[in-house]
Amino acid sequence: MWFFNKTDGACPAFEVRLEEYLEGLQPGSVAHPDPVLATHLAGCLRCREALDQAREASALVREFAIPVPDSLAHNPFFAARVAARIRENSGRAGEFWPQLESVSIRMMAYALSLAVLLGALSASGFARLSQPAASLRPADPRAISLASGPAPVNPDEVVIALLSSERGRQQR
Amino acid sequence: MAVAQARMAPARGLASGPRADESDCIRRAQQGDVPAFEELVRIHQKRVLGVVAGILRWSEDIEDIAQQVFLKVYLAIRRFDGRSSFGTWLYKIAVNETYDYLRKKKARKLVYESDLSEEQVEHLDQNLPEEPGRGALERAESRQAVERLLAELAPEERLMIVLKEVEGYSVQEISQAMKMNPNTVKVRMFRARRRLSDLYRRRYGSSRHLAASASGRL
User: Fold this and answer.
1) Which residue of B has its CA nearest to A52?
2) Per-residue pLDDT tens over the stretch B59-81
3) Do A55 and B218 touch (CB under 8 A)?
4) Which residues 6+ apart lie within 8 Å of A81 measured at CB?
5) Cβ neighbours of residue B153 under 8 Å, at least 6 residues apart?
């Protein structure tokens, strides 16, 4: 039957029927294909060859493929190992949430501290921003002589005025 | 003949209705009862191992993957709504999980990588009924040859053939586990068988050597 192995396989329209025919075959039995398939097989070399090949492969696998050994299939410890893995996994999940909770509480505390710090810094920043205007005002208006001219209009003039005044000189 | 018939003894079908205690175990497991889930593992362990081994054949990771399957099933069991049988749902997860493992490993020809050692063959042989008149060595060689051929098939083809011929699944059960139309399974299975036969002929010239002894059982 292996003399015709140059065929391209069974006719696609008959593959399902051929498989059903094979499935109906029990070891040692001589089942007959349904009439439609039987008629087709009688005239189709390709399908006959494909059927023979499939039967051979089926017989080979049934006979020689190794089933799951009983030592594994009926291992009494298998279920216990699965249960241990489940418990281990649940344990990890159980540890995870409290850890996450404590981490989140810690993060919140950090965030709050940071917010307070930023608030304090920004408040002092505002205070400092408002200070230069005050410092531009002469510390002692009397230090500036009226005779020195018109009132200063910018900080440089204030400084110059201070330096040129009596008190300014003494301070230097 | 006795060997083949013993091997062909059909396993409990997926489609068979759930056992009363299975339904109870499912309900309890859905509430987080681990011992009830352990009972479900005992009921389905052989078939899940069969599915995993059907794809991976004799990789050392079979037991580990099967455990991983059950762990996934436990974590997802609350979502099991009973529309399909528990077995069908479980075996689908087993198929997906094993394919995921294969994708991660990117190893298709696992048997070549971890070919059976003489010790493994001997161990496996001890688990099978002895057939009088046949040399243990000859059988071991034949098994190795068939395992190598199976390893050359695509995982999907290998799984179909092993589930059908070795684990005793019906086409209906395979189609449920593999989420395929039964007719698609029939066509692919038929082609997979032919491909296996082609591989054998290409490697060994003719299938006389093994087929002669096996065909007497068909």
Assistant:
1) B194
2) 778 999 999 999 999 999 999 98
3) yes
4) B67
5) B161, B192, B195, B196, B199
Of the candidates A163, B180, B179, B149, the one whose C-alpha atom is nearest the C-alpha of residue B165 is B149
Task: Tally DSSP H helices, then E strands, for chain A.
Answer: 7, 0
Helices B208-215, B182-204: axis angle to 10 degrees equals: 130
Location of structure tokens 């083949």: B4
Number of A–B residue contacts, CB under 8 Å: 190
Q: Are A65 and B142 in contact (CB under 8 A)?
A: no
Q: Which residue of A has its CA nearest to B182?
A: A16
Q: Does ipTM exceed 0.90? A: no
Please tell me whether residue B207 adopts helix, strand or coil conformation: coil
Closest to B7 (Cβ–Cβ): which among A62, A71, A82? Answer: A62
Tell me the whole-structure pTM to 2 decimals. 0.62
Are B163 and B169 contacting, i.e. CB atoms less than 8 angstroms apart?
A: yes
CA atoms within 13 A on the CB side of B103: 7
Amino acid in position B98: T
| Number of Cα atoms under 13 Å in the Cβ half of residue A94 | 6
Distance CA A146, CA A60 (A): 121
* Type of residue found at A37: L
What is residue A56's three-state secondary structure? helix
